[in-house]
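Fold it.
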Amino acid sequence: MKTIQLLEQKSEIGAGTRGASLGIDALKVASLNQNNMFFLKYKTQKIAHQNHLLYEENRTPTAIRIEGIVKVYEATSEAVKEVFKNNKFPLVLSGDHASAGGTIAGVRAANPDKSLGVIWIDAHGDLHSPYTSPTGNIHGMPLATALGEDNLDFQIKEIKDEAKIGWDALKNCQGFSPKIKPEDLIFFGVRDTEEPEDKLIEKLNLKNYTVAETRALGIQQAVKDALKRLQHCDLIYISFDVDSMDCDLVSRGTGTPVPNGYTPEEAFQIIEEIIKSGKVACFEMVEVNPTLDNKINLMAETAFHILEKTVDAIEKYSK
């Protein structure tokens, strides 16, 4: 059993709405309200963010505040790499999803001779680039950075020099690109994408277990099938965006809520079945936003319950 190291990345400059930086504190409030000493037992190590840029003029509309995201990637990847160096298990709690590209870079840099599978539990594909994104919000781009994918076949925008320099820096974080191969990426629950992402999913033949397919197969069988697809991978990183859950059932306390998602029980069962493989080397939870929660702090309470059980599963099954 490996020791869990919590990493706290409060960056929210990649999102289009404000408040994701408060998500980690909302998780801590949820634990306190349950008289739970989780955050006393597992102390968090803070990673530098660049949220001060929210108060400065944005110079790169096709990749909003990308100069800050470059620094977030660097800090996050170095922190993750250091956890591996200390032979611990990095469990990352993040604000918005943009920084996950830095997490992936850190996992790969710490394990250069091992192949990495990524399981992305999310309502969104996060496959945009500055050339294709309708918003320029970088929390919709982390997987494109990991894949080293511009998706120029479906380009809708021209990007200027500063954005291009920043984008190339994200793709080459830790000095190499790509970080993962398309066949090593699996989606669970993706149901809200734009046409350039749909075209890229088709082009790269990416597998998405929809909510309906997951239920039709049964969670155990769906995960078993996913793990078979990743059987050649030495390690697996799980990225869990809370918007993968049904916003009408749970709450709208996340940056981009989407209906018809998983129940909290289904979300955790997917995570647990993946962890049982013994290959999971890093887990990340993102996009809790208490400022958008229409049910007080229910999203954070739900996410904390999943977090606590996930840590138990990691300690039980990790090698």
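The first strand starts at residue 4 and ends at 9.
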